[in-house]
Amino acid sequence: QVGVTAQKTMRLLPASGRRATQKVVVGDQDGVITCFGIKKGEAVPVFKTLPGQKIARLELGGALNTPQEKIFVATGSEVKGFTKRGKQFLSFETNLTDSIKAMHISGSDLFLCASYIYNHYCDCKDQHYYLSGDKINDVLCLPVERVNCITPVLACQDRVLRVLQGSDLLYEVEVSGPPTVLALNNGNGGDSGEEVVFGTSDGKVGLIQITGSSPVHKWEIGNEKKRGGILCIDSFDILGDGVKELLIGRDDGMLEVYNFESADDPVLLYDHALSESIVSIQGGCVGKDGYDEILACTYSGWLTGLTTETIHREGGSGEELKLSQEMQSKISSLRSELESLQIKVLQEREKYQQSSQSSTAVSSVPVFSVNDKFTLNKDDASYSLILEVQTAIDNVLVQSDVPIDLLDVDKNSAVVSFSSCDSEPNSNFVLATYRCQANTTRLELKVRSIEGQYGTLQAYVTPRIQPKTCQVHQYQIKPLSLHQRTHSIDRDRPMNTLMLKGQFSFAEIHSWVVFCLPEVPEKTPAGESVTFYFQNTFLGTQLESTYRKGEGLFKSDNISTISILKDVLSKEATKRKINLNISYDINEESVRYTLKLIHPKLEYQQLLAKKVHLIDALKELQVHEGNVDFLLPKYRSILEESDQLLEEYKKQPAHLERLYGMITDLFIDKFKFKGTNVKTKVPLLLEILDGCDQDGLIAFFEAA
């Protein structure tokens, strides 16, 4: 184990001889680079540097077409170079205002990215510069020796790969999720040298050929199993069949190996679950000559090797497996090491107790790092909050000042308890404590918010360390929290329009849009105007927002979306004493369209609720009568599927109430724009909703 590590900070150095094992080099957030080999299952250090600034990336480089054995690390705004023996030969201060987030090295070319800025250096001299429209997560360059030109590719948060030529954008490639990591296919760009594999934060992997004029999408693997986001990718022939497999590490600790049975279709061959997110993955020969391994590095700095060597020696019938001498001596040395560590801990604890009670005592708060991620899932319109701590978590307290539902997560073994809240004086709507089992370092929570209700969700994380200490992390729940960025929208839908005019700057209206909607870059976009498209993940309605200095235009097929925007934007403008001229154009047809979108969901949830209410009665009948052959087939099927039905109902608490709430809001908002208050008619609307008749519902909306 090393210190806490960032994404892509562990590599295998090339082997020196033909059959020699490879050395591992890893950089951690204490700024330490550790290089070691493995001999007889033990780590043998080669070199270790002194602590410094956090290491954000570690890459190998060297002259083109020679073994890549020089070690380069990015720390802060500096790039350092080390030989494989640990001698520093380069220290290059880039003078970037932001810390380096991504790095790629090819011969004497260095490609660096800070949050929004891309820089290309050749022999440490500035060559090209590009300002991206959204945050850059990763960078790579197609192999120069194969494509004969420098073609950098940036993975940007707004679901786009940007392909550059010099300092200019050559073209953009739209991908299905926010890309978090890039890798050259087969490690060399595939047959053409132009093939790039990308992984997204919502767990998809795809292959794109980056040609000189346009992209060619080759294949994509979806995320049917709802696994974590992709953090690292490598290509390595672990099967020894001459074809490189794809190695993938995810942020939920899943390690996957994909095999290419046919050129276009990767098939999952093997997976292995680790308890923490996998930040780096490599294939190579580390522990023993002739046996290939997959090496994974996790967030808290554990390096784990999975080998092709058969570990268990087969025992004869009834004969107990005898541990080899090597294994026995290893176990006894580990036992003695453990005992000496326990004694040391006791001594240090006593020392601390004495010093803390003395008159000159200074209490020190232990520092620990938390890796957190708060993202919207498109599939079930809920937010995932993932908290990962370098030591075991004791408990997490979740508090929210807006109404939210906490949903069940299968992988979550923590015990949850809810406390009653008084929402009136201090607007405290949710207070829940998750008590974790021993050795839990990663906790995943699911949250569903209500659009129009915005505020802050807070997580108080307390790890199992002494003295007790806690970190608070805050997450904004935005007014249109269930909207997600998309590349395009359906132009044929009936749309409502909201138009704003006033004495506001481009930066001011952009900051209001950032306040209202998720996935909008905080930096004001370049140019005079900008257009963003969104889709509501719960209902499937859409929103188009176009704005510039002094003018904003918002179009949506859902009146409620327009109503929320109108309220929030006018409130934000009032705060800054800006006078807004607001006009709107409401399309009556859009209400009918939105109701038709909601109705199938409503019908499904009502049917599910009815089935669940019948289960107990049907089970009682089954107990009394002995068999259920006399029941109608539809009731028999409810009994047979009772477990699945209950599971689904438990996973989606308050789903039906949410849909009722959305239809009620739609009803109130439709008439609010006409200047009519229809709150008294809401009970009548709820009666019609219970009847679940689409035509009756539309008629009520039009007649009211």
TrEMBL record:
Domain named BBS7 helical hairpin: residues: 588-701
BP GO annotations: intracellular protein localization; non-motile cilium assembly
Residue ranges of coiled coil: 324-351
Residue ranges occupied by any BBS7 beta-propeller domain in the UniProt entry: 10-308
Gene3D superfamilies per the UniProt record, alphabetical: YVTN repeat-like/Quinoprotein amine dehydrogenase
GO cellular component terms, A-Z: axoneme; BBSome; ciliary basal body; membrane; neuron projection
Domain BBS7 GAE: 366-475
InterPro entries cross-referenced by the UniProt entry: Bardet-Biedl_syndrome_7_prot (IPR016575), BBS7_GAE_dom (IPR056334), BBS7_hairpin (IPR056335), BBS7_pf_dom (IPR056333), Beta-prop_BBS7 (IPR056332), WD40/YVTN_repeat-like_dom_sf (IPR015943), WD40_repeat_dom_sf (IPR036322)
Domain BBS7 platform: 483-585
Cited Pfam families: BBS7_GAE (PF23360), BBS7_hp (PF23349), BBS7_pf (PF23361), Beta-prop_BBS7 (PF23743)
Entry keyword set: Coiled coil
PANTHER family for this protein: BARDET-BIEDL SYNDROME 7 PROTEIN
Protein name stated in the entry: Bardet-Biedl syndrome 7 protein
Organism the protein comes from: Tinamus guttatus
